[in-house]
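hey m, so remember when u said the tokens were messed up on ur end? i reran from scratch. heres the input so u can diff it against urs
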Amino acid sequence: MRAAERGFLLLSSCLGDPMRKPLTTSQLRILADRMWKMDFPTEERELEMADMIALGYGRPMAARILKLLSDGAVLDHYLQIARRKGCTPLTRITGGYPLILRQRLALESPGVLWTKGELSLLAQPKIALVGSRDLHERNAAFAREVGEQAARQGYVLVSGNARGADRTAQEACLNAGGSVIIVVADSLIQQKTQNRVLYISEEDYDLPFSTQRALSRNRVIHALARLTFVAQSSYQTGGTWDGTVRNLQGVWNDVFCFDDGSAAVKELCQMGAKPVKLDALRDFSGLPQGDKSLFEQ
């Protein structure tokens, strides 16, 4: 592992210590931006206080960053446990890190993705499915159809493993012989390795569930995919709504909402989403696209 990759891990991870305070995504973004714009020392020596001052940091923040970077032994122990648990880190500068995340999320892309399972799935074409936990039956039928069609049409399904729409689509996809990328909001080490499944976690591999993590991972689900399907959403509230609105505002990909006549779907379509019926899922390439077709993205 290169020194720069270790740096990303040291700056963005708790390393198994809940009291450790890594940089936020925003702080990491600012540091990376400053380092990019300035001549910076090579990887052959460690950073010093003078380097941080030159980057425009005051002494307290500079000392905090240097302290985080000094925890090399802690990182080595954390990586050793990760290997035993089958967890592999992909930093933003690691080969294999999804280019689409850097393109769509820029410096808001996760500094580190922890993975467990079939890494090759990241290189395959993907569609995403999001939706509410408490599904109406016809919305559940839509989620199942998206999962089944993803398998039949050769796409990896990306979802979040939550009760309701996520698990309905994931199970349908796997039962139909497809593959699934699951972006979790809880501990990665709790996930059992399965064929045709890749688990992804932001930040650390051993962090427990939190509402903030659940909300944050939604941008990864949306941004990884060539297009996103919304099985059901609450109106102006909840993770499905927030993640879909961020997608539409950022124009990450085309969004298709199940046309259930709800106020949420009507509002999302006014923002740029497209309503879709169940029978339209039989051929994803036939869905109305934005500036590029599904096969040009």
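this time it looks ok to me. Residues 137-153 form the longest helix (17 residues). if urs says something different then somethings off w ur setup not the seq
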